[in-house]
């Protein structure tokens, strides 16, 4: 049958979590884009609405309790080095509770809150596409 993102374009989702003008980013340990900082997210399961997948993935990866989210954009990322191709629906969230944690240390090694002027140099393509769609007011 094949694997999404590897044998055929995969459908993914991501969540830009914002607090006090800063974006939550996690450092990835696995492909695609291992060693790069990215937003939380992952694969959309069969018959799962993408918005639900964004919340599920964010809660699994960060330990936060996610409230209301809003659609932000769609992105297409082709990572030639990892031979992966993903189309992702990206959402944004400012409504959450709790403090982020490393919930999946086999997938993510670190996290932090970053303002627009203090973003890490090694940003994933998913994070770059998301940041391009965020407004200046999101970072205030």
Write down the oligomeric state.
Answer: single chain
Global morphology: globular
Low-confidence stretches: none
Q: Share of helix among residues?
A: 10-25%
Main sheet?
A: 7 strands, mixed
Rg calculated over all Cα atoms: 14 Å
Query: pLDDT average, as an integer?
Result: 97
Task: Please write the string of helix (H) and strand (E) elements.
Answer: EEEEHEEEEEH
Number of helices: 2
- Alpha carbon gap, first and last residue: 46 Å
Structural class: alpha+beta
What's the β-strand tally?
9
Q: Could you tell me the strand content as a percent range?
A: 35-45%
Describe what you observe in this structure.
The protein has 2 helices and 9 strands. It has helices at residues 50-62, 125-133; strands at residues 10-19, 22-28, 37-38, 40-43, 65-66, 69-79, 84-93, 96-97, 108-114. The strands form 2 sheets. Strands 1, 2, 3, 4, 6, 7 and 9 form a 7-stranded mixed β-sheet that branches. Strand 6 and strand 7 form a beta hairpin. The longest helix is centred in the middle third of the chain and has 13 residues, at 50-62. The mean pLDDT is 97.
SSE order and pairing:
Layout: E1 10-19, E2 22-28, E3 37-38, E4 40-43, H1 50-62, E5 65-66, E6 69-79, E7 84-93, E8 96-97, E9 108-114, H2 125-133
Parallel strand pairs: 1-7
Antiparallel strand pairs: 1-2, 1-4, 2-3, 2-9, 5-8, 6-7
């Amino acid at each position: 049958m094949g694997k999404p993102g590897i044998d055929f374009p995969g459908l993914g989702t991501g969540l830009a979590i914002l607090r006090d003008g800063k974006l939550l980013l996690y450092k990835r340990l696995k492909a695609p884009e291992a060693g790069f900082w990215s937003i939380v997210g992952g694969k959309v399961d069969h018959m799962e609405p993408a918005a639900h997948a964004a919340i599920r993935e964010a809660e699994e990866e960060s330990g936060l309790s996610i409230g209301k989210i809003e659609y932000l954009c769609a992105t297409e990322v082709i990572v030639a080095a990892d031979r992966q191709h993903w189309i992702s629906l990206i959402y944004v969230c400012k409504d959450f509770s709790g403090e982020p944690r490393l919930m999946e240390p086999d997938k993510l090694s670190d996290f932090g809150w970053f303002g627009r002027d203090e973003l890490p140099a090694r940003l994933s393509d998913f994070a770059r596409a998301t940041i391009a769609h965020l407004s200046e007011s999101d970072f205030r």
